[in-house]
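Aldehyde dehydrogenase domain-containing protein: structure tokens wanted.
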Amino acid sequence: MLMVPAAHRHVMDVRFHLTDAEQINYLKRFFKGERISNQCPIQLADIYGDQPPWEIFGATEEKLAFTGSTETGQTVLQLAARSNLKPVTLELRGKSPFIVCEDGGIDHAVELAHFALFFNQGQCCCAGSRTYVHERVYDEFIEKAKARAMKRVVGDPFKKGVEQGPKIDSEQFQKILRYIRAGRDSSATLECGGDKIGSKGYFIQPTVFSNVKEDMSIAQDEIFGPVQCVFKFKDIGEVIKRANNTRYGLAAGVFTKNIDTANTFTRGLRAGTVWINCYDVFDAGIPFGGYKMSGMGREKGIYSLSNYLQVKAVVTPLRSPAWI
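Answer:
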């Protein structure tokens, strides 16, 4: 995540200032001493986390790029406007849908939906945390998704074979457990997981909820943890409407064999990225960013470069005027 904006600054030959979150001190040590470019008088500040240092909102910086919560992103945008109207790129929260149609192989669908949510312990802004499954394959999907989650290996992430490590800190650990308790107290069905693991560390059981409704907190809020919420749907028009019924729009995934169905979803889903029969596939040339409260602007690809440029019009007459 840090290298993408750093690469943009290198291409544009501008000074790069990184302000990271305290939770990623390991990366801070890794980047210590690295310099991107100091030749251009423009200074840019990249802010990660939810407590950015307020000194970056002076008149020196001419561009801000923020990755973090939607609430802090709103504050960053307001302060940037008050300082010197500096442009801002925001990459914020997500609550992305992963839609499983009835025409694909169920085993592949289960594995892909599992990866879409549980990748990086669920600590991923574009995680496919809302799994919509067609009613014809819903029951079979639930059983297999439950079995897959229960087989997930949790432990030391540096050990071979481990699929899921701990949460990043106590605050996030407790937040996830609160959402799980809210899900258990609702009418949703807890299929597996739903608790912490052991008494040491911030380990949480891979959790699957079925019969989830759109008005539940686990369906609307970004949990940022290993909690898969599964919904049932009947037809394409219905599920597109339900998938869009969120304040976020960072990404979406669709599993189908039918190209016409895939095209219908790509046109209808309000998300910055739509993955068809895959998930979390990135490329340096593919722009990444969100709709709605998931942010503004794009990282990567040619579209991202415009975030760091100003347009200048230069007019020169073909013939010298008489007064020159």
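The chain is about 30% helix and 20% strand. The radius of gyration is 22 Å.

Cheers.
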